[in-house]
Design a protein that fits this description.
Its EC number is 2.6.1.18. The chain has 17 helices and 15 strands. It is an alpha/beta fold. Helix 3 runs antiparallel to helix 14, helix 5 crosses helix 13 and helix 16 crosses helix 17. Bound molecules: 4'-deoxy-4'-aminopyridoxal-5'-phosphate (PMP).
């Protein structure tokens, strides 16, 4: 496989942006913990693709399940008739979800999961005769995909400002990272409760009776790996409960074992009313997402009030047989290989390796949780992002795939990672940082 001559011609700017076009890095194949590029070089996957290939690459059981499915039933027109697969999968998902989130709506991506969850929130209140609850609260510096709902509740400028005003009736919590108080800590200072009071500010400002939902990434990924200080999520939950506001966790990144439990909600001990997921659901190999909702929300959304009876929501590819087959084989893999708890087992080892990078040139903060790591670098004068990009490029040349968000280097290896891979990741990254 050679690189096509005019690559700009057929890629959207965000799928192959500056980070890619600077020096195209083309991958030819993948297996287990490794990619291989078109020149045959082996690249250790430090990011599970884009936080998604949690079971590793090209796992034979998943490959076989998808191949078998496409040859057996390639598509089911599920508005008229279905296949059993989405129902079988729903039972499996119910078994690992935090109670009482025991219903799912399928989507095809994280962005669709977010927009679907926001729509469900509005329809839920309307079905209960509270149609005035239309306001959605996100957080500054959050990423919720690229749909109109997601960019409206999100807060990253490059994701927002080119695309008009977004949804009406949206407001944002202030963001929570405070490097001054956080720098190099293992764990975080306990100012979560205080930070969460910002939701009370918005409740007072807008009147609780107009607010439908709050959406939050338990750990924000694309905004720079921002961890919730202890007490933050609990307090947000309490405030939502007090005012009848639905709480949505966007677990597109944190779901499916990334933090040592199937979902971050379980690890943090805070149960939202809805959970958006994608990525790890199929270990990235077939696009699929799912929104988890409680029985109460499901009932209201499906049949509750008269006004909801003619409600329509669904995609051509909802519960696609290939995606369901991939998800079922992925769940088998997670369960049989103990991958849901792997991040917890390796957390201390991962933390030691990551924090050994303290003191390397330009490192101003290090953050970690489960099998997530972030190394934040001081921005170069007048060129924010340049240093991060250098790390991405040099690490790739050494044979390591990292992700950057600005000047933060993010790591999230497949959950099949072993100690020797962790050693390799930090030794390659350490050498790159030494050379900056
Ligand atoms: N929410 C979060 C928290 C994400 O990290 C992402 C993707 N990185 C999305 C939503 C959007 O997912 P997708 O790219 O599959 O649409």
């Amino acid at each position: 496989l050679a690189a096509p001559a005019a690559m700009d011609a057929f890629w959207m700017p965000f799928t192959a942006n500056r980070q890619f076009r600077g020096t195209p890095r083309l991958l030819a194949s993948a297996e287990g913990m490794y990619y291989r590029d078109v020149d045959g070089r082996q690249i250790l996957d430090g990011t599970a693709g884009l936080w998604c290939c949690n079971a590793g690459h090209a796992r034979p059981r998943i490959v076989e399940a998808v191949a078998r499915q496409v040859a057996t039933l390639d598509f089911a027109p599920n508005f008229q008739m279905g296949s059993p697969l989405p129902f079988v999968l729903a039972e499996r998902l119910k078994a690992i979800a935090p109670r009482p989130l025991d219903h799912v709506f399928y989507t095809n991506s994280g962005s669709e999961s977010v927009d679907t969850a926001l729509k469900i929130a509005l329809a839920y209140h309307r079905a209960r005769g509270e149609g005035q609850r239309i306001r959605l609260i996100g957080r500054e510096n959050a990423y919720h995909g690229v749909g109109f709902g997601g960019i409206s509740v999100g807060g990253l400028p490059n994701n927002r400002k080119w695309f008009g005003p977004g949804l009406p009736a949206v407001d944002h919590l202030r963001h929570t990272l405070d490097i001054g108080r956080n720098a190099f800590s293992r764990g975080l200072p306990a100012h979560g409760v205080e930070l969460a009071e910002d939701l009370e500010r918005l409740v007072q400002l807008h009147d609780a009776s107009t607010i439908a939902a709050v959406i939050i990434e338990p750990i924000s990924g694309s905004a720079g790996v921002i961890l919730p200080p202890p007490g933050y999520l609990q307090r947000i939950r309490e405030i939502c409960d007090r005012h009848g506001i639905l709480l949505i966790f966007d677990e597109v990144i944190t779901g499916f074992g990334r933090v040592g439990e199937p979902f971050a909600a379980q690890r943090f001990g805070v149960t939202p009313d809805m959970m958006t997921t994608a990525k790890g659901l199929t270990s990235g190999c077939v696009p699929m997402g799912a929104v988890f909702v409680s029985e109460m929300i499901h009932r209201a959304f499906m049949q509750g009030a008269d006004s909801a009876i003619d409600l329509f929501h669904g995609y051509t590819y909802t519960g696609h047989p290939l995606a369901c087959a991939a998800a079922l084989a992925t769940l088998d893999t997670y369960e049989e290989e103990g991958l849901f708890t792997r991040a917890l087992e390796l957390e201390a080892y991962w933390q030691e390796g990551l924090h050994a990078l303290r003191g390397k040139p330009h490192v101003i903060d290090i953050r970690n949780y489960g099998l997530i790591g972030a190394v934040e670098l001081a921005p170069q004068d007048g060129a924010p992002g340049a240093r991060g990009y250098q790390v991405l490029e040099r690490a790739f040349r050494k044979g390591l795939l990292v992700r950057i968000t600005g000047d933060t280097v993010a790591l999230s290896p497949p959950l099949i990672v072993e100690r020797r891979h962790i050693d390799d990741i930090f030794s390659m990254l350490g050498e790159v940082l030494d050379g900056l």
